[in-house]
Structure formats: C-alpha cells, structure tokens
Amino acid sequence: MTDAPSPTPADKAPRHILKALGPAAILGLLWTVFPAILGITLLGFLGQISDFLQSLGPWGWVVYIVVFVISAGVGLLPTLGQSILGGWTFGMELGFACAISGFVGGSMVGYVIARLISQKRIEKALQDHPRGRAVRDALLRHNFWRSVLIITLIRLPPNSPFALTNLVLASSGAKPVPYMLGTAMGMAPRTAIAVWIAAAAASTGAGNLKELVQNQPTWLVLGGLATFVLALSIIGHIGKRALDSVTREKPADQAPATPSERAA
Asked: Residue 80 in 3-state DSSP?
C-alpha cells in the first residue's frame, strides 16, 4: 500500500496563514461578514432610522456620528450604507461632514483594536505577501506626507473594506496622524458621491428606498445607479494604478527599514 501524498505548500497555505494570524484571522472574518449582513438591514430600515435621527433635532447628527464611529470601528456596519444614511437624513453638506467625522473616528477605534489584537502577527504574515510587503515597506520608508499619500490611495478604491483596511494598516506600521489624514482624504470622494446621491434621492419626498423606486421612472433609477457604480469604479481604478506606482518606487539611497530600525 502506497502512502498518501503529503500536502503540498499550496495545500497548507490557507491553514498556515490562519495559524499565523491567530486572533486577527477571526477578527478579519467577522469584519467581512457582519457589514454585509447588517448593511442590508440598515438600507431596509433607512426611512425609519432617518426619521428617528431627525426627531432628535440638533442631537441627531451627534448620535449619528457616535454610532458611526463605534459601528465602523468595530466592523459592524458598512461605511457606504452609513454614508447613504447621512446624506438621506442631513443633506449634502452636513451629511458629508458627519460621515467623514465618523470615518476618522471609526478608523481610530479600528486602529486601537488592530494594535491590541494583531500582536505583530499580520506584520509577519505580510512577509509572504509581495504586495502587502511593498505597502508596508513604503509606509515605513517614506516621510510624513508620502505616508499620507499612500494611505489615501489605499483608502480610495470603493472595494477596500474599511475595517479590514484598518487592521492591515495599523499592523503595517502606519503612524496615527498620517493614518487619520489619509483616511479622511481617501474616503472623501466616494463618501461625497454616496451622500450627494442619497440627499438628492431624499429630496424627491420618498420616505424610504422602496418608495423612491416606486415613485421614480425606472430609467432614472437605473441611470442613477449606473452613474454611481461607474463613478466608484473610476475612482477605484485611479487609486489602484496610483498605489501601484507609488509602492513600486524605491529610492536608490534608501533601503527598506530593518526590524531593528522599525523598533527604534
């Protein structure tokens, strides 16, 4: 009887990665599943939640920001859905300001959680991931404003999960101040689009998304959705190309920081 073939490196890779990440792997899984599930719930009750926030008067936007910070920071709600809620409830100007405040606050909550949970595990896992290693080295190698630029470009694509990006950036050596600035700048374009479209939709007088779809011409609803998706796709494409360009750059007189240099 012949022995069963031993697992190949490819077979062991997922298990090896999960073991290496430890608690961070569980956190990453939760931050992938929960926003998708709860985001659908949020949009389903968009009208009721908006009415409640408006009933609070000036305190409504305060409650919105606090809930945004906590829910985004712990990875429970999708940031896109919360941006839509902000635009639907408060309009373009106030909705955008509240959403960006929620992003920055939520990113810092996620930053602290990632620092406590990852315990350097993600940094070690990045050693086997060329693209992730390139981003980490770029963050550690460049000056303040270059780091802000890199974090901005990482945040720019709409398909970059907010909570997971917090986890990776915090574990890759990102410093708090460039991390916050890059988050605000990178999230601004897609947030502005989402808030603007939501504010325009709410201005039609619809009480919720169902009424909006029922009361507006089909071509207008589909056209607005297509424009939204196209705009996000363009932003994501630009961000990806720019990030690839930045992380490929490597000054001839400056090698990536060594572990001892990073510790210093």
From this structure: helix
